[in-house]
């Protein structure tokens, strides 16, 4: 990503009650007895987000990132562990109970169509969360116009339809809709992944500006570690539903200790060909096998079938997260 040189990870927040605390989260898909025996899509994941902090969640496709986001938003049933939001246990809160959280917890997804109904005007889509909170139509329309201007679009956009905008503009509108009720935590799931590099940089800067203005917390989910690095103060690296490494963004992305994080950093696309070649060489010298290796049997390190350092111990014992430098790393040999 071309913007990695001007990262904007924001100030280190004062630690008070965490905005969000996820503890030993387990999610298994399937119903009834099948759910009990299904492999965990999310397997004992813990992290917290301080007020005003951005935590990046990164991993390959299928690693469980969206599942974690959905569990936090109440869109996916949790099989184990707890989710606390501003000190309140919301692990199994119903949809109505979550609505009572008001506009505090919102999301921006990769596909703007998931939050913008193509048959509704932008004004209707933006006003909807306000109307649900009892705000009168006229006032909601004014607020929608204000919010559109704030994300860099003209007020007149309220009368247009999503199809009349580019992908980048639609994503700005999704951001406007997510923020219109003044949330405190926003889950951004691959929010810029479908955009070209320069549009990606614009939307990332917009997210950073809004965070700095409003003291927002983000859970910023992406498969590209360079995109995550741009916004996040802390980074959590997932592999097959398990945390491989987590810690300050500078440590995890600048000096990765886990073989999988090292491979992710080496695989992250960079716009300069010379650097790309150097990265490719570094990646090859790591000896990490690419692609979907065979699914490892349960137990042991989930990364062992792709890991150049794997030993017999890695097949029998799941490595616990332990402190290495300033990060926590789940590897017997980090
Ligand atoms: N609705 C579902 N039903 C069954 N399995 C699912 C469902 N959604 C996701 N999964 C599985 O859960 C795992 C994690 O998926 P997901 O959270 O979407 O990963 P990511 O967002 O990191 O790509 C994958 O193995 C995926 O196949
Ligand atoms: S625990 Fe073993 S298999 Fe897992 S990352 Fe470390 S060395 Fe590789
Ligand atoms: Mg996903």
Automatic annotation (TrEMBL):
Stretches assigned to the ABC transporter domain: 20-265
The keyword NADP is assigned to this record: no
GO biological process terms held by the UniProt record: peptide transport; transmembrane transport
InterPro entries: AAA+_ATPase (IPR003593), ABC_transp_ATP-bind (IPR050319), ABC_transporter-like_ATP-bd (IPR003439), ABC_transporter-like_CS (IPR017871), Oligopep_ABC_C (IPR013563), P-loop_NTPase (IPR027417)
Domain of life according to the entry: Bacteria
Listed CDD domains: ABC_NikE_OppD_transporters (cd03257)
Keyword check for Disulfide bond: no
GO molecular function: ATP binding; ATP hydrolysis activity
Keywords: ATP-binding, Nucleotide-binding, Transport
A Pfam match: ABC_tran
Family: Belongs to the ABC transporter superfamily.
Name of the protein: Peptide/nickel transport system ATP-binding protein
Organism: Pseudarthrobacter niigatensis
């Amino acid at each position: 990503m071309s913007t990695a040189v001007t990262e904007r990870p924001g100030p280190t927040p004062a630690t008070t009650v965490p905005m969000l605390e996820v503890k030993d989260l387990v999610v298994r898909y399937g119903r009834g007895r099948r759910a009990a025996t299904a492999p965990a899509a999310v397997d004992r994941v813990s992290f917290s987000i301080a007020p005003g902090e951005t935590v990046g969640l990164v991993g390959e496709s299928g690693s469980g990132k969206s599942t974690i986001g959905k569990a936090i938003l109440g869109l996916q049933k949790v099989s184990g562990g707890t989710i606390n939001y501003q000190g309140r246990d919301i692990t199994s809160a119903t949809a109505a109970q979550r609505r009572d959280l008001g506009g505090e917890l919102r999301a921006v997804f990769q596909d703007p169509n998931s939050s913008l109904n193509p048959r509704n005007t932008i004004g209707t889509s933006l006003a909807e969360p306000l109307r649900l909170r009892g705000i009168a139509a006229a006032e909601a329309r004014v607020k929608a116009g204000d919010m559109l201007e704030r994300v860099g679009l003209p007020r007149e956009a309220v009368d247009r339809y999503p199809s009349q905008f580019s992908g980048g503009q639609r994503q700005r509108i999704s951001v406007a809709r997510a923020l219109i009720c003044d949330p405190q935590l926003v889950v951004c799931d691959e929010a810029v992944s479908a955009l070209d590099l320069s549009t990606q940089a614009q939307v990332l800067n917009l997210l950073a500006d809004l965070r700095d203005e409003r003291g927002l917390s983000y859970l910023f989910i992406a498969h590209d570690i360079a995109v995550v690095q741009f916004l996040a103060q802390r980074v959590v690296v997932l592999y097959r539903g398990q945390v491989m490494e987590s810690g300050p963004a500078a440590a995890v992305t600048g000096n990765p200790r886990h073989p999988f994080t090292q491979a992710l950093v080496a695989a992250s696309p960079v716009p300069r060909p010379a650097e790309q070649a150097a990265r490719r060489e570094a990646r090859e010298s790591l000896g990490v096998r690419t692609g979907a290796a065979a699914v490892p049997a349960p137990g042991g390190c989930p990364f062992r079938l792709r890991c150049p350092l794997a030993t017999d111990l890695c097949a029998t014992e799941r490595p616990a997260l332990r402190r290495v430098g300033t990060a926590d790393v789940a590897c017997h040999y980090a």
